[in-house]
Design a protein that fits this description.
Blueprint (H helix, E strand, L loop, with lengths): L1 E4 L4 H7 L14 H11 L6 H14 L5 H4 L9 H22 L4 E3 L4 H7 L16 H6 L1
Parallel strand pairs: 1-2
Helix pairs in contact: 1-3, 2-5, 3-5
Length: about 140
Amino acid sequence: MCSAGELINLLRWGILDDERCGCGEPFSTCGFWTTVGRRAFGVSGWTRPLAQRLLHLRSRVDRARYVPQLSRATSTHPRGGELAAYLDAYRDVYAAVADVSGASVVVDSSKQASLAYCLRHDDDIDVRVVHVVRDSRGVAYS
């Protein structure tokens, strides 16, 4: 099992903002994420144009307001081509994380329901959702 964090934020926080990874290194120099980027997207790996393209696709298909559309069959989705391109990137990232980490399960702790609705449209991604409810007292005192 590999806990990959909130992959939905990888584009902005990692690629565009170059924030630090959990290992302490900036995203751009983290050995794990650099290798994942190359496995997923070829020699160039993570690039600003890639992040910008995927963020654009995200704005077109992965939003809470699109959940009713996403709950229908893929063939009836009005932005089917954009959804397919978005899912291709996620599939490649998940496969690369699994390959680099050696894990058979990748845990994406993204919290947007719309992403789960997007991912359900890809037969190659086995999505399992865990809904965790926090006790508000624990959050307030932590």
